[in-house]
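Re: the pair you flagged

First of the two:
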Amino acid sequence: MNRRRLFSAEPGASLRVRRPVVVDAGVLAAVLFDEAEGAVALRQIAGMTLHAPQLIDYELASIALAKARAGLGDIAAQGLADCRQLALERAWVEPVAQAALAMSYKISSYDAAYLWLAAALQAPLITFDTRLARAARRHLGSDD
């Protein structure tokens, strides 16, 4: 009997499916604005497909404005420019569910948007925010 050889071909690194994660503004700000925690944040999100609610751009603009007012205008401008180049999927969030999550977990409606999106995508939520992390662990059923 003649045996056939089995071959396998894998897509290049740029074509592989990357694990989705939801990142909040604090995580992206740490990376984009060269904050002390930027290296930690970058290691955590490297190789992932990044997702965030559409409000992410408004939050990052607000953070950049605060940095510019604190005398860090160059860093703020560069961070916003870098943000435009960032591979980040922005998503619409269901406002009624967002408000319900905010009430249920006693978090801001902004934070609830990230939590809603993580649940909708069944993806991890990456944040430096202790209160949001606690709500995410409860809502997403994570023990980490």
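Second of the two:
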Amino acid sequence: MVGGFVLGGMVLAVAAILLFGGMTLFTTKTAAVVFFEGSVAGLQIGAPVTFRGVRVGAVRSISLRLDLQDLSAAIPVYLDLEETAVSAVNHARSSGVVTLPTLIAAGLRAKLATQSLVTGQLAVDLDLLPNTAAHLIGGGGDVTEIPALPSELQQIKSQVAEIPLRELAETAGRVLHSLDAMSTRLNTTIGPTLDSLRGTSDAAAATLATTARAIASLQTNAAGSLRNLDRLVADAQHQLDSGSVDLHRTLATADKALVQANQMMDTAKDLIEPRSQMRADLAAALRDLAASASALRGFSTEVERNPSALLTGRGGR
């Protein structure tokens, strides 16, 4: 019975070791160290080491190293990496196992990652980031050092630390002071302005009322004027209709007068033209009339000299 109890205890111990150790007792491990400069609060021994979500090891120990010369602190975190968790393909000089220095040269970097937002536990996350600088601190002895990168939280803290909070607070204070002064000035000036606006509004309302009355009066007068204009147009149309006969007669008479005037103008034109027959006849008549007038003048002179010539003639005795 005692022997069976001891044997059963040993079996349970082995089973517990295998269960809680994750069958890692029989795997080959590679030691590595990462120096974190920031806080590692939440990182515990046995915390998983992952590569893009795949567990490749665990945290073995965490310590603190102080430099008394410049009073700087570094936190070396020692890792146990399982070699069988990573295999290589298309590697001519390897038997399928990837070495840690090869991965570091290819850009292997380590940073802290949050396992749970509720508990705040951290893990070490590995990734290949060839475009980042490999900042090595050294001092890990024979253990290979993996370059560390700041976590997202540390990056946020650094960015927040770089923000000039004091200058922003002073600027905000000045802005608030300016707003307070502006509010005071507005309170002192808005009252008279409101009174002026109220007076202007009352005057505008009175002006609008006067304008409305004037428009109503104008509408009444315009309506009367339009009615008078309609009657005037009707009377003018009636007079035009009644006087259209007389107008036609007057136009006919005027037409005849124009015809006669044109005839007179033609006659006068015939009289004025130098070579016209009428002008030649008129000139001959004028010459004959002049000769007759000369003879009559001589006859009258002869009669004045010798009145008896009327009885005896020029040669009578």
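The first helix runs from residue 2 to 21.

-B.
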